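Quick question, first post here. What does this chain look like in 3D?
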Amino acid sequence: MPEKSAGTSTQFPILGPVPRMIWVAGGMIFAAMFMFMVWSIDQSTIASLVDNWSYPRQYQTPQKLEENHHENANQTPSLMSDASTPNVAHVESPSPVDSVIAPDERKPDESSSKTWQNVSEQSGQDSVLDLAMLAQNVGWGHDVDNFHGETEREKVKGAGEEGDGGKGDVDWVLVDLEKNFSSNLLARWLAPGGEPCMEAKTADIRVEGLDDGYLIDFSPGYVHQVVFQALDETGLPRCNGGDYFEIDLSGESWKSRPPLKDCGNGTYSFDLQVHPDFAGLYNLTIILLFRHFEGLKYSPTRFVLDKELRRIPLKFSQQASKNMAGLRRCEKSDFIKDAWAGRWTRHARNDSCGISDDGRYRCLSPNYPCSTPWCSGHLGLLESNGWVYSAHCSFKLFTKEDAWSCLDKRWIFLWGDSNHVDTVRNILFFFLGVPHLEVVTRRFDKNFTNPRDESQYVRFTNIFNGHWDMKGNYLGLDSLTNQEYRDTIMNYFNGSTVPDTVIFNSGLHDGVYWPNIRRFVGGAERAASYWAEVMEAPKRNGLKAPNFIFRSTVATGGYARTLAFNPCKMEAFNGVLLEKLRSKGIVDMVIDDFDMTWAWHFDNRCNDGVHYGRFPAKLVWKDGKIGHQYFVDLMLGHVLLNAICAK
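> Answer (accepted):
Ran it through. Tokens below.
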């Protein structure tokens, strides 16, 4: 289009004729003002403006999680002699790396102050991203001021009180099981619809504060609450809940599941918190797996969506961090929490590490030390290439000597699905050095002796609960309807000696058997009543009741996320059963294996879909690669020993 002449009378109409001299004088004044404006703008300001105009909206290209979304924590052909091997990188404070950002996204220009939107200390308070704006936009019926903080935040005593200078307490995001969990879940599941905003299906979300194209710069240590709105296919807000979102926060050396709250009105919130030791670049991934309780259906596969809605790059800046102490080592009282909000952190890595002929990944020396306060003991024992799990407290990693000292002359009784078989076998092999593991099956009862000290022994009893017939499957809690099976269990608790510890798990088989959540609630009530009788039996004989540990069911991985035992259903079943057992007063401790496995459930590197502890083997795995990772179940073994021998 040709430029319009500056003297065109129709462009800026004026009143009356204007002398030529006035036009000339005006033009000279305008030119002088323009030159002054140009001289006053420096190069960095222009670069910043151009960068803001041209910077892409990085969330707008949804894509499936790559196989390396959860980076392989593996690879080494041989056992290294010591922890100082040059190929091993000790990870202290991770620096930003390009691989954290999705391949089709440009790494942000940190020199431009306008590219990053800073979520600062906010006068020492935690942050809520545009909560008031979202409330105004969608017409919440909630008091915004009261909404912040509904996720439980508690004081967790940090390492500062254990001798590092007394830096004080640390605020960590904690979660807990919702009160009246079963009845509230049933009420939401059975709630009538009627209004269009209730009947519509969720197709997308709006994340206020993160959908504006800026890369957000968060302050580590602070709790940052993010709120998003579910939208239907036309972009209108939905006004009820029940959608199942998988949320993941991953950096180079951090993996966690931000605690999610369903507000029941189409809005959801979650909390972000990263320790200052792990400042750097992160990806926040939000996947819509099922819509409006459809994952609870008897045959949920035909309803699965499994759509990645967002992958948003975030930055946690060390410079603006909140001073946090560490985590103290777990004690007996720490295992009373019904739900955990832990994280996996990485403290070393060996990029040249590969699989050995026996299927193992000996990436670090066995005596490679833990990093305080994230664990205590030898990190190399996990064979995780530097990864370790911690929750509201941290865990000890047991050597063979420690494990035998813990378990010597104890009787451990396990009831659950076949993941128990893997865990017992891994404890015997990796922790206790016991050979000849062919006896570890769905149902067995055996004493195992320390090969290096015959005076030490431990008794393991495992009863499979997938079916009363050890060759059957997919009954779960309903296996207790068989009287002979019930009597078999009770006999172990009616004698002159009884188990010291019961490790109880509902199991994946319940996900296949029960036709709906209401039927499962009834089955859980009957199972809780039966186990209350079992735990009462030793008391009638003048004996102490065993320590009862509830171990939640795993988050199924990869392809299994869409099946009958999907994470949506199993998380609900975990909550229902734990509530029913709590009502009988028999639960002493809880281990949240669902949270522990979550970070690794998006693919099949660490699982075959339903098991996280299959024995190492240099064979083709579920994902087509040679070998698999088994360290997640080893971590569970260490956590179990922390609970069994807690003081």
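The mean pLDDT is 81.
The longest strand covers residues 453-464.
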